[in-house]
Amino acid sequence: MGIVKQMSIHTPKIEKKVTLSTIAKMKGVEPITMVTAYDALFAQLFDGEVEMILVGDSLNMSFLGKNDTLSATMDQMIYHTQAVCNGAKLACIVFDMPFGSYTTANIALQNAVRVYQETCAQAVKIEGGKEKSEIVKALSENGIAVVAHIGLMPQHVRSEGGYKVRGKDEADIKALVEDALALEAAGAVMVLVEGVKAEAADAVTKAVSVPTIGIGAGNSTDGQVLVWSDMFGFFESFKPKFVKQYCNGAKEVREGLEQYRNEVKSREFPGSEYTY
Ligand code: KIV
């Protein structure tokens, strides 16, 4: 055989499929790790290392190159979630409902049913506070698990004129806690808290009995999520304060590419070891 099969020597940290009940039991016991993924290749890399993968509508920015998430569509999100499902067999997968796909309970239900029928996602995520309770209730009552996304909501970027950090005063912390409690009462299985002061995320985490996942929300939520292209240094347009870069992906790729270019130009590549 001309093709050498590469054997992976990596041992995954997680060995069993992570379910929503596994995640529920982690609250107050062990911090939950979540990253985004948009394709099978990276989903496979992340699988077994983190409990959860979010197919975020952030793919519209980091993958499609748009300025915000608003033009992501159901078809696009389903396509990418199918790819993630092909790559990740252990992680609990969450589907991010795109802008306009949950404007009423009926529309939300039709779209979320599609998610369960066409992908392996275990939950859908919707942005919004207590005003979305009826929608969360309709989905939950029909057997669809919902992650409620509160705080800074990227789908509101145009209506709010930018990305605004929340929870800066007592009144707003109270409003966020009320949102979280209403969404939990409506059936949300998790609350994702984005772009809020740490005290606000702490108050929300203490108020609800479901796990909270934070992004730009300090250190006391039950888990953390980061967008993969941010955390691995591939997305260079801007770097929010809350993003820690765990490697410099763009630099590594550029260096590799430069070496490849030089070797092709000098006819060093492909040498005899890469030739049939
Ligand atoms: O779309 C996304 O990646 C998200 C995260 C920022 C939580 O919603």
Write the layout of secondary structure elements.
Blueprint: H1 20-26, E1 32-36, H2 40-46, E2 52-55, H3 59-62, H4 74-87, E3 92-96, H5 105-118, E4 123-127, H6 133-141, E5 146-151, H7 157-160, H8 170-185, E6 190-194, H9 198-207, E7 212-215, E8 223-226, H10 228-231, H11 249-265
Parallel strand pairs: 1-2, 1-8, 2-3, 3-4, 4-5, 5-6, 6-7, 7-8
Helix pairs in contact: 2-4, 5-6, 8-9
Bound molecules: 3-methyl-2-oxobutanoic acid.
Q: Can you characterise this structure?
A:
This protein is α/β, with parallel strands linked by helices and 276 residues long. It folds into 2 domains: 226 residues, TIM Barrel (Alpha-Beta Barrel); 28 residues. It contains 11 helices and 8 strands. Strands 1-2-3-4-5-6-7-8 form an 8-stranded parallel beta barrel, surrounded by 6 helices. Strand 3, helix 5 and strand 4 form a beta-alpha-beta unit. The chain starts with 19 loop residues before the first helix and ends in an 11-residue tail after the last helix. The model has no long low-confidence stretch (mean pLDDT 96). The structure holds 3-methyl-2-oxobutanoic acid. 3-methyl-2-oxobutanoic acid (KIV) binds next to strand 6.
Give descriptors for this structure.
276 residues, alpha/beta, TIM Barrel, 2 domains, eight-stranded parallel barrel, 11 helices, globular, binds 3-methyl-2-oxobutanoic acid
